[in-house]
Amino acid sequence: MAKKPNKLKARLPRGFVDRSAADIRATDEMLSKIRQVYESYGFDPVETPAFEYTDCLGKFLPDTDRPNAGVFSVQDDDEQWMSLRYDLTAPLARHVSENINEIQLPYRTYRNGWVFRNEKPGPGRFRQFMQFDADTVGAPGVQADAEMCMMMADAMEALGIPRGQYVIRVNNRKVLDGVLEAVGLGDEDDAERRLTVLRAMDKLDKFGIEGVKLLLGDGRKDDSGDFTKGAGLDADQIGMIVNLIAAEASGINQTAFSEHIDYLFDNHPAVSSAGADIGELLHLVKASGYETDRIIADPSVVRGLEYYTGMVYEAELLFPVTNEKGEVVQFGSVGGGGRYDGLVKRFTGRDVPATGFSIGVSRLMTALKNLGKLQTANVVAPVLVTVMDGDTEALGRYQKMVQDLRQAGIRAEMYQGNWKKFGNQLKYADRRGCPIAIIQGSDEREAGEIQIKDLIEGARLASESTDVDNVTWRESRPAQVTANEADLIEAVRGILDAQAEDRRQANGD
Q1: Which string of DSSP letters, residue by residue, matches 32-84?
Q2: According to the annotation, is 220 in a ligand binding site?
Q3: Fewest CB within a 10 Å sphere: which of 126, 390, 411, 509?
Q4: 53 is annotated as contributing to ligand binding
Q5: pLDDT above 90 covers what percent of the chain?
Q6: 88 annotated to bind ligand
């Protein structure tokens, strides 16, 4: 007996998700609001492909020790390695470099798209996710960084996140470089330990001060028993770094930030210079009307990507949420960025300063859901034209009704299943959420009429007939009406308008 072939198992790859119509529409609505903010600042869109040559992306991913680890790569027909982009910044640097003679600097641009990480997926950690970036290439001044922070704050408020529930935190990688030099990690031989220290500092919001101390010292063991080797600093070195990253939590005066870190590090030249830049940025944003509780200096901001060379910043949401362990925690970061003055130089050999930030779209959507601020366009399901006769002539008449509705701006579809089981057509309409069903049998056709079934009102009346305690007693409209076929558009639009008014009344609008 022939063995039956095994059926192919349908399975979604780990770290990837399917997206529903509601998610897509909500994302589009959110992106539209962010886009309006970017456009108001004079930024223009650009788009780069999902694939780049692997060497153009470079080795910038955090928590990896191998060149180009963490990316999905393939070889093309010329045996050149290409990789799916892991962010939108490295491709922008390639685009600017390749078109440096045509692009007007400063180049102010934004783009959104999918990025990919070949990393172990986990709760809230995906291998494919969307980012929405804005960058200024060719502007060396602190004012370009200040503008990024203000634009990030404006984007949060455009999405309905109120003041007091977000903050833009600012630091400077040169402060961190100076600190590492001050604690004795300034030599080239210390490069790996410096990265370990920065990664430890970047875990402050996740592990707290005590966890960071362990990572700066011998190492830290997590709840599962896995051990992460630390930077091996001594107690004095750990104390200096902890004093820095705990500064914001202790409530330092923002206007005296540079003086504060000068005090901590005994006027170390590199630290003092970078601290002065942060002080200038704070002055610029305050002069522009951004209160000190919206954009603040925070020495614990590190940013994981290694191409940052100056200012770094993060947008953090401050409201509490419950995590997958049932713990109440602060929501945390939904975006960030910084200055990357050396990224274009890799290709051109020219100093081309650049700064920008990236919003994590999926994570921000989760935040908006928690706040009840996720606005979805009110897309009404299509009107269903039912099929009472399956011959070619009849189908042509039904199809014309559908096209007339569409041309009038009304979503509509003709039933495509087995038309002989009319009950299934109404079941389909119910599952689809159709607001109206159009019915025309032979009798209606001969009379030049159509039956229009108000499925929303019909469902409401059916519900009230079985739930007398919740009867609204408002004046009902008929759940089904007869209309002249020539009046199809007017009759359908009248019912849709009445349904829309019901929704407004129910929402208290």
Answers
A1: HHHHHHHHHTT-EE----SEEEHHHH-S--TT--STTTTS-EEE-TT--EEEE
A2: no
A3: 509
A4: no
A5: 53
A6: yes
